[in-house]
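Morning. Coffee machine broken again, so started the prediction first thing and wrote up yesterday's gels while waiting. Chain of 68 residues, entered below exactly as on the submission form.
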Amino acid sequence: MKKLITTVLMLMVVMQLFAQDQGSSVVNTLAGSEKIYVVVVCVAVILLGLLFFLFSIDRRLKKLEKKS
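Came back before lunch.
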């Protein structure tokens, strides 16, 4: 019975997501003026920088662990 209730609640949440408006005024404005590409590039550069930083820290920690 508990699984059935959980399943029904999950289905209700999913159906509510489909009922939402598909467009946003911010997205429409950025896509209309083609500034969305600038936003995407900025986000990609930030994520790549964070990944590079994390991998460099990982390499440093591995070197320190090998020394001790």
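The mean pLDDT is 83. Going to sketch it on the whiteboard this afternoon.
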